[in-house]
Specification:
Layout lengths: L1 H18 L6 H6 L1 E16 L4 E17 L4 E10 L6 E4 L9 E11 L5 E9 L16 E11 L2 E11 L1 H4 L6 E2 L5 E2 L2 E3 L5 E3 L10 E9 L4 E9 L3 E14 L2 E14 L1 H6 L8 E13 L2 E10 L27 E15 L2 E13 L7 E16 L2 E14 L8 E15 L1
Antiparallel strand pairs: 1-2, 1-23, 2-3, 2-4, 3-5, 5-6, 6-7, 7-8, 8-13, 9-10, 11-12, 13-14, 14-15, 15-16, 16-17, 17-18, 18-19, 19-20, 20-21, 21-22, 22-23
């Protein structure tokens, strides 16, 4: 047995020698690899007094980015996510399930070429770097696709162009139908058929369709301007223009961020959901003012959507829409959305803020009603160090009909809390 074991070991070493003939010494290989990532734990505790339902979750997401230098002009980039199937959180309901292990997925795997001056070309599986999507997010879902992205800078202007032949929009997208059924009850994932029976519906978007986008970003002396166009085959085409500026003065700073987005649904998509209330024309205009004076910080933002539709983003955290804690204007027709924040730095690393968001809009469908959503919460943010950030959030969320079949009825009446810890490296 000893002789056989020895021969087996020799054979194994011989095979290893053949397969690693071109391998670098470990020390040299490590020198050519850049490592970064994030670790996030989030605890949510939601309750709804209207339905006596509660939702208590432990949420986890760990992301690891590896960038390896192939040669002077090429890098290989990869991203691994320990989390949900959509590269978002792994949510474990502590009130209904036991502790579980979560999956590891390969989110990015692409080559970056920089052999042309002031130009980068990424080819392979990568984040969808567009205003309508979120390519990388430490604490939420991400949009990815396989294709090519090119960025080239000429003076203050950066030009972008991309083509993707598939994406994960069917799994990661927040672009879902929001409507009311024939009884007037609110539903984010159901529509009513011709017999009045609620039918489940997935996301509006399709991950097998081609995506083409072009854009330009101009970083001028006092303002940054951008303009983009995107076409998702057989689903929609959209354009967006934005402007962002910061004005500094002694003791403080004021920021202005404005954007307009128009999105037109294709006939193929409209026919699929005929009679539901989807409209070809969707638009959002928004403006945000931020300010910092001494230890005080404040924000006021307003968003408006077209009376026919307000679906303007594939992800609720994208810059082409507005998102709060529990409220979002994405997909809401004829909406008025206000966000307000007033904060104070109790200590240099400790901020306490009060936040109030109000959203009013019209539901889709023949029985669409005027709906109002409100959230009021306090948040304590503690930044222990540059790479470790924690916040505690507690407040209320309400959703009710303002008119229509169930005028004045509450849909949600919640008390909600959250604890989040985020470490980046």
């Amino acid at each position: 047995m000893k002789k056989i074991a020895k021969l087996s070991l020799v054979a194994a070493v011989a095979v290893a020698g053949l397969t690693t003939a071109n391998a670098q010494p470990l020390e040299e290989a490590i020198k050519n690899v850049d490592v970064s990532g994030s670790v996030v734990y989030r605890y949510n505790d939601y309750s709804n007094d209207e339905t006596d339902n509660s939702d208590v979750q432990n949420n986890y997401k760990v992301a690891l980015n590896l960038s390896s230098k192939v040669n002077e002009d090429v890098k290989f980039n990869s991203r691994f996510v320990v989390g949900g199937a959509d590269s978002g959180f792994a949510a474990l309901d502590s009130g209904k399930t036991s502790d579980q292990n979560v999956d590891v997925t390969l989110s990015h795997a692409y080559f970056g070429y920089t052999g042309i001056a002031n130009t980068t070309v990424n080819i392979g599986k990568q984040g969808l770097t567009t205003p309508w999507t979120v390519a990388i997010d430490s604490d939420n879902n991400e949009q990815t696709g396989t294709g090519a992205l090119a960025l080239s800078t000429v003076g203050p202007v950066t030009l972008a162009a991309a083509y993707f032949n598939q994406s994960n929009l069917d799994k990661s997208s927040d672009a879902k139908i929001s409507t009311t059924d024939n009884a007037g009850a609110a539903s984010d994932i159901k529509i009513a058929d011709n017999s009045g029976n609620p039918q489940p519906v997935g996301t509006v978007l399709d991950g097998s369709q081609d995506i083409v986008t072009v854009g330009a970003i101009a970083a001028l002396d006092f303002v940054t301007l951008d303009a983009w166009y995107l076409d998702l085959n057989d689903k929609f085409d959209s354009y967006t223009i934005g402007a962002k500026a910061d004005f500094k003065f002694d003791g403080g700073k004021i920021g202005v961020d404005a954007r307009y987005t128009s999105l037109s649904l294709d006939d193929t998509l409209l026919k699929t959901y005929a009679g539901v209330g989807l409209n070809e024309d969707n638009a959002l205009a928004k403006i945000a003012l931020t300010g910092n004076v001494g230890i005080v910080n404040a924000k006021v933002a307003y968003g408006w959507t077209d009376k026919d539709g307000g679906l303007t983003a594939a992800d609720n955290d994208a810059v082409t829409t507005m998102n709060g804690w529990n409220t979002t204007v994405n997909g809401k027709a004829d909406a008025d959305y206000w966000q307000t924040t007033l904060g104070v730095n109790v200590l240099p690393e400790l901020n306490l803020s009060a936040n109030y968001n109000n959203l009013q809009y019209t539901g889709l469908g023949t029985n669409g009603a005027d709906i109002e959503e409100e959230e009021l919460y306090a948040q304590l943010t503690y930044k222990m160090s540059k790479n470790l950030n924690t916040y505690i959030r507690y407040g209320t969320y309400t959703k009710e009909y303002q008119s229509g079949v169930n005028n004045g009825n509450d849909i949600n009446d919640d008390t909600r809390g959250r604890l989040q810890v985020e470490y980046t490296f």
